[in-house]
Write a structure and sequence with these properties.
This protein is of the alpha+beta class. The chain contains seven helices and eight strands.
Length: 197
Amino acid sequence: MMNDFFQSDITLENERVLLVPFSLKYKESLKKIVFDERIWRYMGLSIRDEHELDKYIDSTILEKLEGKAYPFIVIDKESESVIGSTRLGNINFHNKRLEIGWTWYGTKFQGTGHNKACKYELLRYVFEQMKFNRVQFSADIDNKKSQNAIIKLGAKQEGIFRSNYIDQFGKQRDDVYFSIITDEWFDVKKKFFSEYD
């Protein structure tokens, strides 16, 4: 099942967004939005030039080839523009759990509702197609904007993981973790995502 999953062509969409498998063919579109330091403040990396973008693209594709994550390009349906990326990672098929994250959007697409539309499709796919039991999310302890966005998805805060990652400056950073479990999904879907159902 694992190999089939990473080799599959997963496409998800609603009236706001289209999620397609991440690939090199989107490089030129990514270049239009990726070189903004505000995107990368809490991401553990930065993309300031084409060389760093190439490294990011290569490492993202490699994670899929190695079965570590399934990355997506996020496209705005109205403008047909690439607006960012997200992925399913830390995938544990035996225990039926994974993390949705590594998400970023061009600054003009932040706070526009695209993230909620994107996360709805991912959550629905994970709970209703993959039949997984748990989805987790994390955000840097100082990234209140991302934490609030996660809470607006209906996720419950679980705790703080201390020294959970090293940022772009080599500093240890704490993350706040959240989750939604399968027993909660249909209530969360009804309460937080009624506009998509």
